[in-house]
Amino acid sequence: MSLKMPEPDEGVIARRAEIAAALRAIVGEDNVIDSPTGLRPYESDGLTAYRQVPLLVVLPETTAQVSRILAWCSEQGIKVVPRGSGTSLSGGALPLEDAVLLGLGKFNRVLEVDYEDRLAVVQPGVTNLAITKAVEDAGFYYAPDPSSQIACSIGGNVAENSGGVHCLKYGLTTNNVLGAELVLMDGEVVRVGGRTLDASGLDLLGVVVGSEGLVGVVTEVTVRLLPKPEAARAMLIGFPSVEEAGHCVADVIASGIIPAGMEMMDRPAIHAAEAFVKVGYPLDVEALLIVELDGVAAECTHLLEEVEAIAGRHGAVGIRVSTTEEERNAFWAGRKAAFPAVGRLAPDYYCMDGTIPRRQLPRVLKRMGELSEHYGLGVANVFHAGDGNLHPLILYDANKPGELDRAEEFGNDILRLCVEVGGVLTGEHGVGVEKRDLMPEMFGEDDLKQQQRVKCAFDPDLLLNPGKVFPTLHRCAELGRMHVHHGKVPFPDIPRF
């Protein structure tokens, strides 16, 4: 691993058997994994470029067990890395050699559905799509829909503030979560938010959503449910250039139209997706927009006409509108399968995540093409065009010396470009380890220290998911969180990297 992570504590590693025995006393014999073969599947998350076998894996089944695990690890000074389904694309669940990996896969129940208040209470291991499946017969659904929704867990969605193809109109996870149960590193169980849109007290829910496992372990989530719209229709719109497609996106939003979803794919992604799912995507265009309008039927019909007119002014070369629910779902099937489909184009790909102002789409897409030539690596673009959330897929072969390094540099240049044009480093994948060392591109030293003070308020010993998000790990004492007595720091062994 070329990525710099905190130096492992050899003393903790030497205690593996003791730690495993203590955790088995809490969760039972079968819920601790410490064999080399058993640990191997946990060595990475969705960012497979980086791998590290964990010290051991513990699989609790109740909040009380999570509380006891964290309290014991806190007393013993042992690091903990929370993990959901392992679909994170930023290395947020990358294990550490001297850390316990806390898997939440057994927290997989829908605890309550309240249609009158339009909410559901679920455990963090419930998959994103399972929430909709649980309520769709009553005409409801859960709006955020990441491409990995069949596998990604709601706890991971909360950690990363995940989005999806419909986040343009209906918001990210943070806009659709009402409350959460959280276990702090010392074992204390707290509740943040509630069952209403605006809970009383300090908005700690806004801190928890998107905190990437740095402040606590989520063991229960209360989510908003929405009624299924009366009508929803999708359009496929082809363009002769990605620049014209980008201009069309900006003009649709500028006209006051907010589609339910607005996605773009370039030629390599179009061809890969069509070969994968065969839904009838046009293969003679350079860019494809998928635009969905929803609401009452008359509104959908009117807005479809408006979008078609705007697309025509930007040189659209083909427009196809769904006529059935099956056809609409087929349009989206290709987009949602785009990431695995691109796997046909190269042995490996590096999925990036950055966000830019919509008006900068043409400039950024053009520059990415130039960077592709500079690094000698292909790139397929699949992204949430409506809100400027880019997902360039950099194609490389890890078996060829130097290609992974070039892919990383290519990705770093894309993210720097996002910040340069007024955007941000991430839209929904989080910072994790992937963007950690780029944080100074976006934040000054004072900004980063202030963010770390929030971390210290929840986790003063810095035991939860260390090595993620912050490029330099400061002792909490250095940030004013702890008192230094006679020049002695309370936790002198905390690593700096």
UniProtKB/TrEMBL annotation:
UniProt KW rRNA processing keyword: no
Pfam families found in the cross-reference section: FAD-oxidase_C, FAD_binding_4
InterPro entries referenced in this protein's UniProt entry, alphabetically: FAD-bd_oxidored_4_C (IPR004113), FAD-bd_PCMH (IPR016166), FAD-bd_PCMH-like_sf (IPR036318), FAD-bd_PCMH_sub1 (IPR016167), FAD-bd_PCMH_sub2 (IPR016169), FAD-linked_Oxase-like_C (IPR016164), FAD-linked_OxidoTrans_Type4 (IPR051914), Oxid_FAD_bind_N (IPR006094)
Record keywords, A-Z: FAD, Flavoprotein, Oxidoreductase
Superkingdom of source: Bacteria
Domain FAD-binding PCMH-type, first and last residues per copy: 50-228
Cross-referenced SUPFAM superfamilies: FAD-binding/transporter-associated domain-like, FAD-linked oxidases, C-terminal domain
Keyword DNA-binding: no
Cofactors demanded by this protein: FAD
Molecular function terms from GO: FAD binding; oxidoreductase activity
Gene3D superfamilies (alphabetical): 3.30.465.10, 3.30.70.2740, Uridine Diphospho-n-acetylenolpyruvylglucosamine Reductase, domain 2, Vanillyl-alcohol Oxidase, Chain A, domain 4
Name listed for the protein in its UniProt record: Glycolate oxidase subunit GlcD
Species per Swiss-Prot/TrEMBL record: Novosphingobium malaysiense
